[in-house]
Amino acid sequence: MSFSDQQELEKEIQKRCPYKIDIGAVFSHRPKDQKTVKAAAFQAQEKELVFDIDMTDYDDVRNCCSGANICDLCWPLMRIAIKVVDRALRDDFGFEHMLWVYSGRRGVHCWVCDEAARKLSQNGRTAIAEYLSVVRGGENQTKKVSLPSEDPIHPAIRHAIDIIHDHVQEYLVNKQDFLDEEEQWQKVKQLAEDFEKHGTNSKNRWAIIEKRVEQSQGKSNYPKSKNLDSEILLQFTYPRLDVNVSKGVNHLLKSPFCIHPKTGRVCVPIDTTDVDSFDPQKVPTISQLLEELDNETSDAEGKKLKDYKRTSLNGSIQVFEKFLKKLENSWKGKLLEQSDMKREF
Amino acid sequence: MDFGSGRRRTNKIKKEIKTTAYPHTLQFYKIPPTETISLQEFEEFAVERLKVLKAVETVGIKHIRSSKDYSDLLEKDIRNTGLRKILKTQKADDDSENEDVYNSRRMDHISHFILRLAYCRSEELRRWFIQQELDLLRYRFQNENKESRDTFLKQNNLNYDPISDEEKNSIFDNLASSGNAGSVKVKTTEYFKVPFTDALDLVKGRKVYLHKGLAYIACDDMVSILLTVYRTYLSHALAVTARVLPHLQEDDRLLPMLCGLSKRYLGQDYTAKKSNIGQVTAEMIDMLSKQSFPPCMQQLHHSLRQNHHMRHWGRQQYGLFLKGIGLSMEEAIKFWRTEFTKLMDGDKWDKQYSYNIRHNYGKEGKRADYTPYSCMKIIMTNHPGPGDFHGCPFRHCDADLLRQKLQTQGIAKADQEQIMNYLKGSHYQLACGSYFTATHSKVMDSGDTAPQISHPNGYFEESQRLHSGLKSQGSSTPKTPHASRQPMSQTTPSRLSQSSQPISQQVPSQVTQLSGIEEMDDDFPADVMDEMMMGVDS
Ligand code: SF4
Ligand SMILES: [Zn+2]
Question: What are the residues whose beta carbons fall under 8 Å from the beta carbon of B17, sequence distance 6 or more?
Answer without folding.
Answer: none
